TrEMBL record:
InterPro entries noted in UniProt: PML_C, RNaseH_sf
Domain of life where this protein originates: Eukaryota
UniProt protein name: PML C-terminal domain-containing protein
GO molecular function, one term: nucleic acid binding
């Protein structure tokens, strides 16, 4: 559904930004840019009825765009693509508390989404993420060269990556009940997954899963239920 949406809706433009850009005198005089005030001043009092209803607001805004005579190419130049908006939203949510929303938006503006960042981190850790964010584009970094900011981003990626991996470790024994896999194969698969995810080393084997552990997990869950 989302893919179909992105094919149909290529982007969004903020009408407030458009109106402020074209109605410079109104902005200089610090007049209101509320929909009802714009509708009254440019379209007439009768157009203020039924506002604050989504469908009606869209009709009025469209009429205002036509009345003010905003060219389509200007609207397009001020619009943000749907992929950017989705990436921006995901990045802000993921990095909340780690970096500012401004940095998250700069990452999205640099055409970097969360999936790309995660792949860079998994491929080469700090160095790969730094290379991606600090890439020189027209003598400016794609996002930032600030070491503190990059470290904060990498730390969050590292934190979430470990959390996801631990979640994988905890979930695997339960898959035995779901898919009917025997105890020992489930134990082997889970142990290998932990090793691949770097949760276990030759020195630290506390996460090794044996057949009995696989058997106990569903029993504990059933008891808790």
């Amino acid at each position: 559904m989302m893919e179909q949406f992105k094919k149909t809706v290529v982007g969004f433009a903020d009408t407030l930004t458009i109106f402020k850009n074209f109605l410079t005198k109104r902005q200089e005089e610090k007049q209101s840019f509320k929909v009802e005030d714009l509708a009254r001043d440019f379209l007439g009092p009768e157009f203020t009825e039924g506002l604050h209803n989504a469908a009606q607001d869209i009709k009025i805004l469209s009429t205002l765009i036509d009345k003010i005579n905003v060219p389509n190419d200007k609207i397009i130049s001020m619009a943000k693509s749907t992929p950017f908006i989705l990436a921006d939203r995901a990045l802000k949510k993921y990095f909340k508390g780690a970096v500012t929303s401004v940095i998250a938006s700069k990452i999205a503006l640099g055409r970097i989404n969360l999936t790309t960042l995660k792949k860079a981190f998994q491929f080469g850790g700090y160095d790969s993420v730094k290379m991606l964010l600090a890439e020189n584009i027209n003598n400016k970094p794609r996002v930032t060269k600030n070491e503190k900011t990059i470290k904060a981003i990498v730390d969050r990626l590292d934190q979430r990556d470990k959390t996801d991996s631990i979640g994988l470790h905890r979930r695997h024994p339960m898959q035995r009940s779901r898919y009917g896999v025997d105890l020992c194969p489930t134990a082997v698969i889970t142990t290998v997954a932990c090793f691949i995810a770097s949760l276990m080393t030759e020195e630290n084997k506390t996460l090794v899963v044996d057949c009995n552990k696989v058997k106990r997990v569903p029993e504990k869950v059933m008891t808790a239920l």
